[in-house]
Amino acid sequence: MSDEKHRAVAEAILPLVGGAANIRSVAHCMTRLRLGLADRSLVDRAALGALPAVLGTVEDDTYQIVLGPGAVAGVTAQLRRLLDSGGAGDGAGPTAAPTAEDLAGRGARIRARARVRNATPVKRMLRRIANVFVPLIPALIGCGIVAALAGALANLGWAPALVTALGPVSSGFMSLLAVFVGYNTAKEFGGTPVLGGAVASVIVFAGVAKVEAFGRHLTPGQGGVVGALLAALLAVQLERWTRRILPAALDVLLTPTVTVLFGGLAALYGLMFVAGEVSTAIGHATTWLLAHGGLLAGLVLGGLFLPLVMLGLHQALIPIHTTLIQQQGSTVLLPILAMAGAGQVGCAAAVYLRLRHNASVRATIRSALPAGLLGVGEPLVYGVTLPLGRPFVTACVGGAAGGAFVGVAGQLGSAVGSTAVGPSGWALFPLLAGPHGTAASAAVYAGGLLTGYAVGFLATYFFGFTRETLAEYDVAASDPGPAPAVATE
To answer: What positions carry a catalytic annotation?
Structure first.
């Protein structure tokens, strides 16, 4: 999408979210434009969902508009330019009514109920931890693709000098990942970000090899992102405690000193050891699980991932993915979990054929299916399969079958990993890695996708509808119009 198209999308969105005066903050993740709004009642949800570029919306701590990978960065940049220039484009936007309103409304209600259920202390904590890692995903993806390129060139024996240069380009960020995690942790939990990064940097400093704790010399990087997270959380508490008891005149000198001193010593003589044991256990458990129970592990993970998303429990997987990438160079869990999206794609294709007389639902599927193929599954889930009920279950069956395929391959010695977190679907191919090279990993992953597509399609086509459901939905729509889309975390 060109800059002109990005600007056109930004100009269309701006009046539909209440104009420039209603926007307090602008940010984005891999697929979503995240807006801090002063008054959400000013949002024209129907018109916003009807925009062709909008794949869905999410109401969370920020108002999130799903635009898809690639497009979201360009639209965010153009929206910021509009805001900086005084909010041009505050005129009236399109007001076309969305199609498949019943399914979209039902999906929105399901999403709202899930959001209420997810508002527990544990799930809020998991979400905040996820917020630490989400801003790191673009760098993880970029470094992962560079590492894959270097590996491919090395295997082919081409450009050895370039391969050598690509090593530090792909690994530099990973070597300092603990610092970024510490910075983001302090920022998320209300501390001074640079102090969180400073305390976490102790973990990756080469000089820790001279320090002995629990009868053993420490290893630079020991504890990884888990240690960095814990160290930064401790730094936040130390900073608050120190600032509370010290006179204001001494704050500027003693608060950072106390935070770095005691936070750093705690990292050296406790947190690095504990976090190192936890990280090692995560790596060993994952390796053992795929080596001895690949079929069952793939079946369960692929089949239950979307229900985990609905419950908000998938947030706990992000630090695990990052730990595996640090330890082993890739996370073998992500390609299995990505099969959940394959099941949804196959399911949506079956719904498209079964509801051949419902032009409205078919228009929604045509709009959302390309995004689903690229791993953005929310429009299909909350706009089609989940509101229909049984198709969501058959889609999960497809995901379980695809996960089992990838899991069995891992059990047979052809484990497939991803060098970064974030993408799934077809977008994951550039990030694949495995013991037998990129081509073999891509073949296994493609086999899993095809299995997920096929089983999701067949299960939905033959078992996804009751006679009553078909009688209710397989009817002609008077005016399909543009397709709606709704989304969730």
So the answer is: 29
